[in-house]
Amino acid sequence: MERKSTEGFGRCFLLACMLVFVLAASAATDNITPGRSIRDGEALVSSDETFELGFFSSPVNSTTRYLGIWYKVSPETVVWIANREAPLLDHFGVLNVTKEGSIILQDKKTDIIWSSNRTRTAENPVLQLLDSGNLIVKDGNDSGLANLLWQSFDYPCDTLLPGMKLGKSFITGTNWSLSSWKGLNDPAPGRFSALIDPEGFPQLVVRNGSAIFYRGGSWNGERFTGTPDLKQVESSNLFKFTFELNKNEVYYRGEPYPSFISRLVVNQSGFLRRLVRTKQSQSWIEIYFAPRDECDRYAVCGPYASCNTNNCACLDGFEPKYPAEWDHSKWSGGCVRKTELACQNSVFTKYNGLKLPDTSNSSFDASMSLKECQEKCSKNCSCIAYANSDIRNGGSGCLLWFGDLIDMRIYPDGGQDLYVRMANSTLGYLVASKNSSKKKRVAIIVIAVILVGLILGGLIVHLRWKKLRKQVEGGKDDMELPVFDLSTIVKATDNFSDDNKLGQGGFGPVYKGTLPEGQEIAVKRLSKSSGQGLEEFKNEVGLIAKLQHRNLVRLLGCSIPGDEKMLIYEYLPNKSLDYFIFGLILEPHFF
């Protein structure tokens, strides 16, 4: 009995040890060495758990399998794929690193589906997924990262991660460029690629096949000339971008930021997208994309023209090459000079706020000032234009153009100055054109001031009329006595006929009249020269009404048609009427 218990305990202990070994073996790791594999369903995880390498399907429920790297918090966001042109067709893929330091991806039949190249061998090769998302092969005896045998950052797919280079090595010939997916669920290389074109002065471009689809422009010390919208992003201090140009390489690179993750993607439609998210959030935020509008399309206006709000215009001193097409918004033919250049009789005209032209036909010298740049361009008859290559600290460096000026646009904020060679005879035209434009602006301003004055004057008159009308209407409402219509008074007095005139006072005539109901009245029609205002008239009528007593003729009401004022009294066939209307009591005080 005791022996069985001992055997049972030994078996349990052995099983527990095996379980611990299996769990330890299956625990997430960031590296493997020769003899260890990553099979479909297993993964490498970077030490800070930002990135994960493993197998995935695209589309999600398909049998096609790819070896890729994605964000652990966002598994659907794949940033790199090893076998994007040769998918596995089952779930039996295996990843190994050889003793020589090569990475191989094999299928169920052990056929090699994909492998890495290498420039040398290593004594103790290690395949490791770094916190940056870079999959590397290094020599385990070398603690640094300077002498890598291979790295995925040298072979980008559609995504540029912080720390990755976009550019070219002039020593090895390696191109660090992005290539879009072929389709939304097809990771194979698509039509669009994003790269730093090293021809002339290096610039950011997106190509559709071999044709330029979008040009971000050359680096001006702060950003690419065609991306002024990034000025706000850069000023936030959340991003730091580096552009390096030397005899060994040229590249653009974004630096990592600890509080969030970021990526630049070229999608299957050719758009560049900058997206960010915190490691705790559930979604990505797009902070920039290009092209943004029709003006961002490459060379949409043709040579010597600039685009502004989806509309093209020739530079001053140039005219449409094909006017008929230009009138129908077909701008690709661009513009030509109104006056041909004569090398020894030319000047330079300054254009402000531009996206600098395509720099593939340019040369540059970072050590020159703008004045030296002008002198150099002036001495070379093939030089068409010049500008500073760096806008920092007031500007420095020299860019010279030797061909047609293509792909310019106007930026209200963030554009640069460009100096274009013009025929000297054109200078007078440009000055006259500018003066004419200035005169037109002055004329427009004068006309605008006059119109505004007329509108304000009309508004003041209208408001005063409304106020007067309101006062009149308000006066009628405020009075305790009836207000008679003018038509009633006109009919009662037979249109103020002389036969009904009772007399004339210092402040107006008095007429006798008969109301429709037969009551006789005396109407005192106040003279306009009396100088009495409406408020004063209202107050005095109210006062007369309150003074109704036997010694005064009874006031029946008033009439206020337009700017006229009339008092309607009860008519008495005796002298008291004359006395009270023309006498000393009423006349001095009320009229």
From TrEMBL:
One Pfam family, short name: PK_Tyr_Ser-Thr
Domain Apple as annotated: residue spans: 343-423
Protein's UniProt keywords contain Transmembrane: yes
Alphabetically ordered keywords of this record: ATP-binding, Cell membrane, Disulfide bond, Glycoprotein, Kinase, Lectin, Membrane, Nucleotide-binding, Phosphoprotein, Receptor, Serine/threonine-protein kinase, Signal, Transferase, Transmembrane, Transmembrane helix
PROSITE patterns, per database record: BULB_LECTIN, PAN, PROTEIN_KINASE_DOM
Gene3D superfamilies cross-referenced by the UniProt entry: Bulb-type lectin domain, Hepatocyte Growth Factor, Phosphorylase Kinase, domain 1
Signal peptide, first to last residue: 1-28
Any one GO BP annotation for this protein: recognition of pollen
Location in or out of the cell: Cell membrane
Residue ranges annotated for the Bulb-type lectin domain, each copy included: 29-150
Membrane-topology annotation of the record: Single-pass type I membrane protein
Protein kinase domain span: 496-591
A GO term for molecular function: carbohydrate binding
InterPro entries according to UniProt: Bulb-type_lectin_dom, Bulb-type_lectin_dom_sf, Kinase-like_dom_sf, Pan_app, Prot_kinase_dom, S_locus_glycoprot_dom, Ser-Thr/Tyr_kinase_cat_dom
Membrane spanning stretches: 442-461
Cross-referenced SUPFAM superfamilies: alpha-D-mannose-specific plant lectins (SSF51110), Protein kinase-like (PK-like) (SSF56112)
Gene Ontology cellular-component terms listed: plasma membrane
Protein name, as recorded: Receptor-like serine/threonine-protein kinase
Originating species: Gossypium raimondii
